[in-house]
Amino acid sequence: MAVKKIWTINHTCGDTTQVDLSDRPADRRAGYARWLAERDCTDCWRAAQGEDAESKAEWLAKKRAAEQAEAEEWSTRYRMPPLEGTDRAIAWGTRCRHQLMAAAYTALVAEGTTSEAEWAAIEDAARPLTRAGWWIDQRDADPADLPELLAAATAGDRPTENPHF
């Protein structure tokens, strides 16, 4: 007698499904059917994943909003000018600038040998860099490299008072 190919699965969600296990070796069908019975059916699983993805998106949106508020408050406190670019780039660049500057302060001043006066010069060098894309591009940079990165920034990253049209 052949091992059955169609199995009735009573899932943990309470649903019952008929599953064709003919694509599995005969000696593995029973174990796989048992494994399936310990899980929700496909429809319930997908519904749960949808809710999960939605809650992750909601969590991420809240996290980004909190980061944005903190970055904007920091920008105001330390007299950092607004960034230029698309709305999305400005928001992202503002967060990246805050994160890089805060990490650089920790690496260079709090844990390093940079004085507060030297840090003030670093802040002054960062202020003219208002292209959001520049800060986004530096988001993975080593914070200790910030002075060198600031020195390497091009004129395109620093707007002039009299731009040429």
Describe what this molecule looks like in 3D.
With 165 residues, the chain is mainly α. The chain has two domains: 6-39, no CATH class; 55-157, no CATH class. The chain has six helices and two strands; from the N terminus they run ββαααααα. It has helices spanning 29-37, 42-77, 87-110, 116-126, 132-137, 146-152; strands at residues 6-10, 16-20. It has a two-stranded antiparallel ribbon with strand order 1-2. Strand 1 (6-10) and strand 2 (16-20) form a beta hairpin. Helix 2 (42-77) packs across helix 3 (87-110). The chain is elongated and about 85 Å long. The protein starts with 5 loop residues before the first strand and ends in a 13-residue tail after the last helix. The model has no long low-confidence stretch (mean pLDDT 89).
Task: Give the topology.
Blueprint (H helix, E strand, L loop, with lengths): L5 E5 L5 E5 L8 H9 L4 H36 L9 H24 L5 H11 L5 H6 L8 H7 L13
Antiparallel strand pairs: 1-2
Helix pairs in contact: 2-3
Q: State mean pLDDT (0 to 100 scale).
A: 89
Spans of at least 5 consecutive residues whose pLDDT stays below 50 are none
Our estimate of the beta-strand percent is: 5-15%
**Main sheet summary:** 2 strands, antiparallel
Q: Which structural class fits the helix and strand makeup?
A: mainly alpha
What is the topology, as strand order, of the major beta sheet? 1-2
Number of strands: 2
SSE pattern: EEHHHHHH
The general outline is: elongated
What's the structural domain tally? 2
